């Protein structure tokens, strides 16, 4: 079954506790936490302390998406503070293989994300090492942007590259909504990140259900 990962970037920060409770009750599987440093992307968000606070609050899988330069400097802190999955960008990790090994050394799952203009073929020699590939369907940095439709083709391409014996999650992030979810799942996505679509909905439960069906 597809895993729904609401992005807390779109949640009301002043009501974070109840926002998390609502989506947890509604059947969300993971909590997607977008970490931005103002360098790799033109926005600044949360740090390791935020992850620690959320970890004390929720039992959901904490899916931490690092949109930062020099991710190797911060992976230890995010891992110690409760991240269950850490995803780094292909474009920001110069020694990607080493960075992936570093994440795995904390006994948590390792993901690699690619920007909209990055070819999935670039991931061929890291696929055996990762637990998840995140295909960005917007340019990273902000919630509420329009879905870039080439992402569908990229999911299919990636799926055809995956070794059959290995279980690798295919996550899609950016502009996901009730309209494009089924096409993304049919193409091969196993995890959908959705920020605005869920948190700006009046009925968050219904929004989550519509992504799953
Ligand atoms: C964008 C982030 C996304 C973002 C998605 O850089 O990685 O996780 O929160 O937000 P929506 O679903 O609103 O596009
Ligand atoms: Zn994200």
From TrEMBL:
InterPro entries on file: Aldolase_TIM (IPR013785), Ribul_P_3_epim (IPR026019), Ribul_P_3_epim-like (IPR000056), RibuloseP-bd_barrel (IPR011060)
Keyword tags: Carbohydrate metabolism, Cobalt, Isomerase, Manganese, Metal-binding, Zinc
Binding site for a divalent metal cation: 32, 34, 65, 173
Family matches, as HAMAP family: RPE
Entry's EC annotation: 5.1.3.1
UniProt cross-references to Gene3D superfamilies, sorted A to Z: Aldolase class I
Protein name according to UniProt: Ribulose-phosphate 3-epimerase
Family, as annotated: Belongs to the ribulose-phosphate 3-epimerase family.
Active site residues per record: 34 (proton acceptor), 173 (proton donor)
CDD domains the UniProt entry points to: RPE
GO cellular component terms listed in the entry, alphabetical order: cytoplasm
Gene: rpe
């Amino acid at each position: 079954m597809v895993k729904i990962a609401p992005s807390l970037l779109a949640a009301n920060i002043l009501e974070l506790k109840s926002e998390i409770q609502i989506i947890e009750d509604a059947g969300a599987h993971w909590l997607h936490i977008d970490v931005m440093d103002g360098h790799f992307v033109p926005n600044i968000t949360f740090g390791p302390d935020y992850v620690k606070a959320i970890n004390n609050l929720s039992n959901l899988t904490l899916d931490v998406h690092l949109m930062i330069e020099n991710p190797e400097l911060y992976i230890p802190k995010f891992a110690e503070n409760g991240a269950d999955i850490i995803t780094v960008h292909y474009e920001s990790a110069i020694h990607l293989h080493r960075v992936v090994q570093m994440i795995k050394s904390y006994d948590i799952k390792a993901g690699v994300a690619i920007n909209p203009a990055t070819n999935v073929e670039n991931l061929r020699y890291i696929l055996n090492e990762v637990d998840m590939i995140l295909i960005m369907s917007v340019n990273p940095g902000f919630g509420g942007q329009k879905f870039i439709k080439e992402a569908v083709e990229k999911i299919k391409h990636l799926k055809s590259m995956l070794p059959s014996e290995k279980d690798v999650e295919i996550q899609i992030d950016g502009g996901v909504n009730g309209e494009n979810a089924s096409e993304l799942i049919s193409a091969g996505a196993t995890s959908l990140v959705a920020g605005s679509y869920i948190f700006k909905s009046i009925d968050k439960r219904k929004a989550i259900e519509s992504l799953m069906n």
